[in-house]
Amino acid sequence: MKIPFIKLHGAKNDFLITMAADVPITDLQELAIAICDRYTGVGADGWMILDPTGGPPAAEQNCDAMIRLFNSDGSEPELSGNGTRCAAALLARKQPEKSDFHIWTGAGLKHLKLISRGEREYKFEMNMGNVSVTELRATVQGLTELRLDAVLVNAGNPQCAVPVENFNFDWRAVGAAVERDPRFPNRTNVSFIRRADPHTIDARFWERGAGETNSSGTGAAGAAVAAVARGLAESPVSVITPAGPLAVRLEDRAVYLTGPAEYVADGIFHYGKMNGSD
Predict the structure, then answer these.
(1) Which of 62, 105, 245, 268 has the most CB atoms around it within 10 Å of its CB?
(2) Which of the listed CATH numbers 3.10.450.50, 3.40.630.30, 3.10.310.10, 3.30.300.30 matches domain 2-127+261-270?
């Protein structure tokens, strides 16, 4: 079975995107696992289905497109900030006259404004909506022995931001433990944040369903909101990731995330057993 894909990355958080009309099967979780495998598949943090016709409920909201996202383990998160920018980049490639895009996600309608475009790279500012703190000082498994606590944030998906002095500990193992704390029935994304200056934080990300990622859009938004809530930073906040900076500003009740989306490649993934007609 041939599955067309386009690969993009948003600050080295990479995604494979397939148009909805090119997905002939319903076992999407297994296909997501297969296509995202970095050894036997194409390789990515996630796989996305893009429906440029909108489809319900997006059509009712007069959206440009609807997306459905799967992590590399087959789970289906509500939202990816980096991934949604990648989807917007594909729309911008096909509609060079447009600069505003409305995309329906698992976390509802998201508006993206095109800031700049190049041959392969686009930059967008995305309205993340109301990113809110749900618990300012939370006790979470894997943190107490390190004498750390966390800020729990709703960024359209669950975020657990952990303020730290440095990254000189096995934060990946800690992130995996935090992700699966029983208090998070659907697991949680985890970020570790370190204050650099009043408008800058360093961050490392452990995402549910994908593990360590070079960056995270929703994670950066959640980390910035957590840092401001804990008095570690002031808006606007530059979130320094292993892939470079993402810009976050808090305005009224909304959070705006600015970052890149870059086209990498396109091709065909051969899913399942090959045969003469495949």
Answers:
(1) 105
(2) 3.10.310.10
